[in-house]
Design goal:
With about 240 residues, the chain is α/β, with parallel strands linked by helices. About 35% of the residues lie in helices and about 30% in strands. The protein has helices at about 40-50, 70-75, 95-100, 110-120, 135-150, 165-185, 195-200, 220-225, 225-235, and strands at about 1-15, 15-25, 30-35, 55-60, 65, 80, 155-160, 185-190, 205-210, 210-220.
């Protein structure tokens, strides 16, 4: 059953149409990738879901329309958005960033969840007092992901996690995302320029061009698709 569905979704930034009738679905417990060139509408797709851009069309979460809900209401439904550029609070400590991630949830032990996310990111436990702005780019990306996990999300929206990172760090982040999916059943919709690694971890993918879905299918099939390979995989 689809946890998330977009049906003919459109979005604009002023006179510029960023999405032009995008339809996609993400099943419960699935990792789905959204691929495409810069300006294709990938980031706007995630913003449409999290309520941070005005949109039209139908968006359903767990079978219920999202309607005109804003970002906080959507977050309370269990949707955690890790934006492009990480969005950590540089002047706050690692621990303070994590605790902010728990503000939309009800109940549960915040200290227990700090310990839980530290199991996925072992360096966090010994650096809770460090200012987030002094972390490396890879550590800030991991902190942004850990902060999203503090809300106990049903779905994770992950926007360009590899941006500006070394290949080894990128691979480690995607390894952790796969582990979260396997161990906790976390549903993930990931936007990624690095199509090769995205297709490795996702079971299904959509390729956007100028705000529309150009092609979609199981990741293994897209990896063998000559057009996708030449345009997005570079071989």
């Amino acid at each position: 059953m689809a946890l998330l569905e977009l049906r003919d979704v459109a979005a604009r930034y002023g006179p510029v149409r960023a999405l032009d009738g995008v339809s996609l679905a993400v099943d419960q417990g699935q990792i789905v990738a959204v691929l495409g060139a810069n300006g294709a509408g990938k980031t706007t797709t995630l913003r449409s879901i999290s309520g941070t851009v005005r949109r039209s069309g139908q968006l359903l979460f767990d079978g219920k329309p999202l309607g005109r809900r804003g970002p906080e209401a959507i977050a309370r439904l269990g949707v955690a958005h890790v934006p492009e550029g990480r969005g950590t609070f540089a002047e706050l400590s690692v621990e303070e960033n994590l605790r902010l991630g728990a503000y939309v949830r009800r109940g549960g032990s915040i200290d227990g969840d700090v310990a839980r996310v530290s199991e996925y990111f072992p360096w966090i436990g010994s650096r809770l007092g460090q200012h987030a702005g002094t972390l490396s780019g890879g550590e800030q990306q991991m902190l942004a992901l850990a902060r999203a996990l503090m809300s106990h999300p049903r779905m994770l929206l992950l926007d360009e996690p590899s941006l500006g990172l070394a290949p080894l760090v990128t691979r480690e982040i995607f390894r952790i995302v796969s582990e979260l999916n396997e161990k906790e059943g976390l549903t993930v919709l990931v936007v990624e320029q690095n199509a090769a690694i995205a297709l490795e971890v996702a079971s299904y993918a959509y390729v956007l061009e100028v705000g529309k879905v150009a092609v979609s299918g199981p990741s293994e099939e897209l990896a063998r698709n000559e057009t996708v390979r030449k345009s997005y995989l570079g071989y």
